[in-house]
Structure formats: structure tokens, C-alpha cells
Amino acid sequence: MKVRIAASDPMKVRVLRERYSLSLLAATILERRGVESGTDMMYFLESDTVYLHSPFESDDIYTAVDRINDAIEENERILIFGDRDVDGVTATAIMARTLKKLGAENVFTRLPSGDEPYGLTQDSVDEILEKEYSLVITVDCGISSVDEIRTLERNGVDVIVLDHHIAGEELPPAAAIFDPRIPGSGYPFDGLAGCAVALKMAWALFFSHTPLFGSGCILLHAEPRNGTIRINAVRLEDLVETDRITEEVVEGAFSIERTRLIDFLAVGLPVIVLDSDTEMNMLRKAFGRSVDISLIDMRPQLEALMPSAAGHSLFDLSSRSKSARYREGDREIETLVSLFCSVSIYSYPSLSSAFDDLLQFAAIGTIADLMPMKDENRIIVKRGLRLLSERPLNCFKYLMGKQNLAGKKINTRDVSFYIAPVLNAAGRMGNPMSALSLLLSDDISEAEGFTDTLLQMNRERQKGEEDALETVRTAAFESFERLDGKMVIISDASIPRGLTGAIASKVSKQYSVPCIVMAIVDDRISASMRCAKDFNARSFLSLFSDLFLDFGGHQCAAGFSMPLSNGEKFITMAESYARAMDEKEAGDIEISADADIPEEYMNPDLWKLYELLEPYGQENEELKFSIRHAQIYEIYPTRGDSRVFRFALKFGRNIWPALWWTPHNRESFVKGAYVNLVFSPDINYWKGQSRMQMVIEEMELS
Description:
Blueprint: E1 2-4, H1 10-20, H2 24-32, H3 38-45, H4 61-73, E2 78-81, H5 86-101, E3 107-110, H6 122-130, E4 135-139, H7 146-154, E5 158-162, E6 176-178, H8 194-208, E7 216-224, E8 228-237, E9 240-250, H9 261-265, E10 271-273, H10 276-287, E11 295-297, H11 299-305, H12 314-319, H13 331-346, H14 353-368, H15 376-390, H16 394-402, H17 412-428, H18 433-439, H19 444-482, E12 488-492, H20 500-511, E13 515-521, E14 524-530, H21 537-542, E15 550-553, E16 557-563, H22 567-580, E17 590-592, E18 595-596, H23 605-612, E19 625-635, E20 644-651, E21 654-661, E22 674-686, E23 689-701
Parallel strand pairs: 1-17, 2-3, 2-4, 4-5, 5-6, 7-10, 10-11, 12-13, 18-19, 21-23
Antiparallel strand pairs: 7-8, 8-9, 13-14, 14-16, 15-16, 19-20, 19-22, 20-21, 22-23
């Protein structure tokens, strides 16, 4: 076993450590993971929604807001068209709940059921026209439905596309499109899940029903420097910064009319400050007693919302402001902007508490769809999981109890193993509306019935997966051998369409190569591809796009459908390409770790650091530490589960509980043996008690 630990830059580590009050190990690991800028650090350290990007940075968002609000006001028939997976179902739930909260009465939902393909089809278009919907909102789909949306628009049905998939060469002629993956969309982060795009649309709609919508202001602050007055002003529209200016003025040297500031202020917007008397005195020092600017003091609103700010100047507040340390501008103006946005948002429950409820859905969908755990996804998931742990919605309470998660601090692993598969089972079994019914329910008794149905579906899904895996076991091995150990491609008429992704994932992990699993549905092939993070599934499939009816996905997970008549040609071409791929590197297992831990540093602080870097996922893998020459102190019974090896390790002065899933060479690891290993810190919850444990990634005799 070779352990690879990335090099670190001592100067950058020192900057992170001093600026953000981090431990040396935390700063080193974050620097090794490429976290350098204040913005990157903000998403690791903060969880307040005030730090999220504004949906109003997207070009089409105003058009979407206006059209949806018109539909609500006119009591139009609105259809939310989603997808069958967890991302699609949670996105649908977010939009349905939002529209109903805003007073919409004719809101309907539609998900692909049975063997229906992904996205809008001609059949679904016919259904939409027959049922006389006047507005269709697609969530987690729609960006590739060019012909279908054109037909709807020609027949008087407006379509708003809320998607996160990559667009083709032609965009659909929709009334509005919000897809962060479209180049030039204006939105600053392209890694949102479909449910998070719906979440942003929900926030924009809530915002549009407050007095803040359509309003602008200028935030101004003047501060003394060495013989000068520095004046900072920031212009906001719908809480989005549109412009800013800095003027350095020698006291009394010339009038305000001779500065750029006068033009910046002369736009008819209110000028907001903290402590108007103080600010006016500074302006008069700069420009003389005759200066006349109407200032609005936000102190009353600030102290009403944040009593702890009483009696503190902007300078005092900036010295302890968290937001200011993430920005490159002057601390005091950055603090003023942050305070104003916080006061504005938390003055309206729809932008805070009501929005918080939706975060639980978005956190689950983002995790399930394997989105990168960076940028604002970290806040969406972090805050969503905290809310799911502390005050879960009624629709989740019974499910969490049945999955032994009640009272536990929920993490991404819990969602991936115990929540997402249950919701996903409905779609895989051809009945995603069962999952949606649960997510739309606020009645605990009703939710119990829906949950029991989903749990039964999940058991059936698990049994179906086991049977299907057994069916394809020989075919998988033969494909692996035939393709020189570089890929596995399986086509079998007995594989249920809803299980292709699960089977591809398990086969890919078993053989450590990309895997494609194809199911045959009538005259069509429906397929999924899964692979490790060092192989791009979507890019691979794009090589054969001319054979597909549609395809899409992400780096690690993708899918496609195609006519049955193209199946043999695809297999021939894909196998030829797979054989031509570079040989896998031979030799010892190589595994990455964040740090090598000596005995004296093996302590509970590692578990605190693990919590600091949560949530984990794509592009922020779980922390991994390497230790050497630890001793197996005790081996515990497996409780009938041969997949896990439970034992205790002596390293340093302490004994540490450990478990290893699917261990190899298990018989070699006996009591008293010395081992080298890579592990992740973990907290085990059992019957209301928690304890630290080590989850082994890889281990060998030392």
C-alpha cells in the first residue's frame, strides 16, 4: 500500500491559520485541498443562507418570476414536470410547496412513471395540451426538450425550464430558462443540483412577494485615514451588488461636485448608513459644512433584529464580523453590506424560516445526485442537514425513526445509505409519485403510510438488485476479461430499467472500472453508466451521441436511451474504444490521505476537524488519515455480518474502536498484529449514545 499525501505551501498555510484562527493541521489540510481564497473558506466555515448566491444574478430569473406570479394571480393551471430520481422528486416537492404557499390553487405534478423515458416526450406534450395547462415548469429536466417545448409554446403553453444538465447546441424556446450550466447564464456557480435550482427559484418567488423586490439602495460609509477621508459606496438592486465606488478625499480640499461620488449618488436611490450623525460629520469633514445628502439610518432595524449590536459602532462590528474577513474590500463597508442583507432577509419569515423548510429537500437531493460539495452547495447541505437533525419536517419524522436516525446528527453518509435509497426506490420500481406524495405530506399519520409503502418498495428493489446482479455476474466477468480489464458493458433483457444505475454502480465498484448496464424496454434501450471520479462518464457517452435518443448526467454517473436497433453498433464501438484506453497502472494499491498522524497527535481533535470539514461528497472527499505500526488490540464478533470487520486498535495511549467494510485478507489480521492503515474519523450513534470510531479505508500488515 502506497500512501500519497499532497505537498503543502507553508506560507499559504500560515495565512489560512492566522486569518481564520485554524489549527495547523486544519489549515494544512485545507490548503492541500486547494482552499485558498476567502470565498472558498467562507463556504467551509459558514452555514447562514445570507452567504448563498442570489438567484437574481441569473439572466432569465425576472421573466420566470413575473410569469409564475401572473399564473398564480390568474389562477391558471400550472404543471410541475420533474424526474423520477431523488433530485427530480425533491425538486418537484420544492416547487409544489412553494407555489401552494404563495396561494396557487391549481398546481399539478407529473413524474415519469413505469418505463416512460426521462424528460418531456411527445406523449407528455399531448397530455399537457389535453389537460389544458397554461404553464409548465420543468424541474431537473427540460433543457434538452427543444422540439417538445417548441410544440407547447406554439400551442399557447408557456414553459419555464429549471434544470442543471448541460444544454445541447440549441436551447429550447422556453418563456424562461434557469440553468446554471448554460454558458453566459450569469449565475456564478454551475454545480447546483436540480433541486437546488428549484430552491433558488423558490427564494426568488418568496422575495418577489416582499417590499424588497424591485428596490435598490446605496450603502455608504466614510472613515478617516491619515489626513484623508475614505468614502465607500455600494449600489444594490434586489440585494445584488451592481456597482461600487471608493473615493479618497483630502479633508476640505474640494467640494463633492468635483468627485465621482456625486454621479454615483445621483440615481434617485435611498442612501443607507449606520449612524447617520457620525456619517454626516465625516462627509462634512471631507466636503465642508454645506454638503447635503439625505441619509437613512439602519440602526433601529439592526438593533431590533440583532440586540447584541446595540451601542457598537460600525468599526466595532467590523472587528468581529465574520463576513468581512472573507472579502478583499475595506472591512467596514463589507460589514455594512453584510449587515444590511442580513437585516433585509431576516425581516421576512418567507426568506428565512419558510425557506429553511425547503433546504431539507435540497440537501437530500444534492447529496443523492452526487453534486460537488463545494461553493454554496456546502451551505445548502450543511444547513439542510442540521435542520433535518434538529426539527425535521413531518414528512421525514417517521422515516427517520424507522431508519434509526431520530435524534442523531445527520450527515451525508446517513442520507446516502438510509434516506436517499428509500426515496429512490419508488422511481426504480416505476412509481415515483409514491415518494412525491410523502414529500408533499404535512400530516404525520398520512406520512407513516407513505413511508411504509416506500420501505416495502425498497425491500423489493433490494431483492431485485440481488437477483439482477446474480443474473449478470457471469456476463460482467466475461466483459471485464474481453475488454482487458478496462471496462464492463452488459446488455440483458431481464434487467429492470429502474435498476440499471444500481447494478452499474455495484459492478463498477467490484471491478474498479467504468460499467455500462443496458436494459431493453420494448423497442428501446435504457442504460446507465457509473465510474470512479478519474473517468468522465458523460464525456465518454458523448462520443456516441449520434446513436442515442437522449443522454446526460455527470462525471461519475450518466445515462442514455437509444433505439434497440442501435444496440449492437453501440456495443461494438464502445468496446473498441474501451480496449484502446490506456492500461491501468500496475503495482501496489495507492491511496490518498490528508495527513500522516504520529502517536502524540492521535486524539479527539481529529474528530473535531472531521466535523469542521463536513459535509463530504464529490470534490470534498471524507478526511483520511494515515497511521503506522498500530496494534490490533481486540477483535469483535461480526454479529452475523461477514461484510464488516470490527476490532480495536492500540495507537498511542488510547484504544480506538474500528470497523472495516468488505475487508480483504481478513484472516491475516489477528489479535496482536501490527498494521499500517488509512482511516476516516467517524461518530457512531447507538441507542442515543455517541462514540468516536475509525472507519478503515485500507489496511496492511506493517
